[in-house]
Amino acid sequence: MHAWLCENPTGIDALQWKELPTPQPGAGEVLIEIRAASLNFPDLLIVQNKYQMKPALPFVPGSEYAGVVQAVGEGVTQLKVGQSVACLSGTGGFATHTIAPAALCMPLPAGFSHVDAAAFIMIYATSHHALVDRAQLKAGETVLVLGAAGGVGTAAIQIAKVMGARVIAAASTDEKCELCKSLGADATINYTKENLRDAIKAATGGKGPEVIYDPVGGDFAEPAFRSIGWRGRYLVVGFAAGPIPALPLNLPLLKGASIVGVFWGDFARREPQANAAMMKELAQWYAQGKIKPVIDRTMPMAELKEAYAHMGSRGVKGKLVMVN
């Protein structure tokens, strides 16, 4: 097998494409021949030693992937050789093969492409957990999605529309705003051209959104929170802009609003049955055509460093997927 090996987490340039012995699965594990692996923001952080999870060196980055089971370890009964699966295991994806815990593998129904599957779990699980579970979103409510043209943002638009909500999508270019409209957004805000608070006020008739979905953080957090509606729920999803914002606590007091943390990974670990039910619902929505990952482009696995550079430039709309 071949894999992109991180022996020193000093950045993308330190990654090396190496030939390694193909491992065999242990108890509770499967060997997967990887057909597609998506690039997520944590994949950028983990090779710079900036992510909360710090795997033992050397490691193969690539948190999310899809492929075909080649071998099963002792005690694995729910998966079979030749079966297509998707997996989000945190590492191992940027390779031709990987070992994964069978419990983390999502069996793929017929018609679920490997490219879509590799781009599916993280963005839809995060957005469903955020909007449905943490925000308790109701039909007719208004959701403001920041960073709306990115992976989790595009998933959030689609899920909010399935839930019957009105969506305001905020993004950094007119082209990204057009993409959001094509996904069902009812209104868009280009926050490099428009004053965010003024635009939110105009789009909500002065009421403010009931739910704000924020995977960006940085400078937009405070003006967005100042615009939230009465009893609003502000979803803290991530900090793609870099800086972690500090909000004055008089703001939630004045709006009767909640600041709600969204940590899907720990939800999946602590509440596995609820997570499994959620993933089943998401797979059904995909089969029904209600949700579908936005694929910015596919690139050969050998071009991983170019893919990282493209992602770092903030030019990605939806998800980047590497293919073998």
From TrEMBL:
Signal peptide: none annotated. The keyword Transport does not apply. It comes from Caenimonas terrae. Keywords: Oxidoreductase. Residues 11-322 form the Enoyl reductase (ER) domain. InterPro entries: ADH-like_C, ADH-like_N, ER, GroES-like_sf, NAD(P)-bd_dom_sf, Quin_OxRdtase/zeta-crystal_CS, Zn-ADH-like_protein. CDD domains: QOR1. PANTHER family: QUINONE OXIDOREDUCTASE-LIKE PROTEIN 2 (PTHR43677:SF4), SHORT-CHAIN DEHYDROGENASE/REDUCTASE (PTHR43677). GO terms for molecular function: oxidoreductase activity. This is NADPH:quinone oxidoreductase family protein.
